[in-house]
Amino acid sequence: MSKTFNLAIPFDFLLQAIAKLSPADKKRLWEFLDTDLHDSAADTLDPEEEAEVATAYAEYQAGDFVTLDEYTSQRSQRMA
C-alpha cells in the first residue's frame, strides 16, 4: 500500500536545498522543469507564439544568440 504525503516546503528552503545539489542533479532538475514548463506553456500559447518560442529555443540550443550585454555593446558601437 502506498501513502501520499502533502508537504509544504518554504521556497527559501527549497532554494537552499537546490544549491547543495551536484551539477548533474541540477541539470536533471533543470531538464525536468524545462519539460514541465514547456508542457504547461503549451496549454496557454497560441500557435504563433509556440512557433516563436520553438524558434528561439532552437537558436539558443544551436548557440545562435547573444547576451543582453553583447547586444547592447554591439548596438552602441553601430550608433557611434
Outline of this structure?
With 80 residues, the protein is mainly alpha-helical.
Please tell me what the overall shape is: extended
Q: Summarize the helix and strand pattern as letters.
A: HHHH
Arithmetic mean of pLDDT: 83
- Main beta-sheet strand count, sense and barrel state: none
Helix amount: over 70%
Provide the low-confidence segments as ranges. none
Q: Distance between the terminal alpha carbons, to the nearest Å? A: 71 Å
Secondary-structure-derived class: mainly alpha
- From the alpha carbons, calculate the radius of gyration and give it in angstroms: 19 Å
**Tally of strands:** 0
Put simply, the count of helices is 4
Report the β-strand fraction as a percent range: under 5%
Question: What does this molecule look like?
Answer:
The protein has 80 residues and is mainly alpha-helical. 71% of the residues lie in helices and 0% in strands. It is built from 4 helices and no strands. It has helices at 11-19, 23-42, 47-62, 68-79.
Write the layout of secondary structure elements.
Elements (H helix, E strand, L loop, with lengths): L10 H9 L3 H20 L4 H16 L5 H12 L1
Which features would summarize this protein structure in a list?
80 residues; single chain; 4 helices; extended
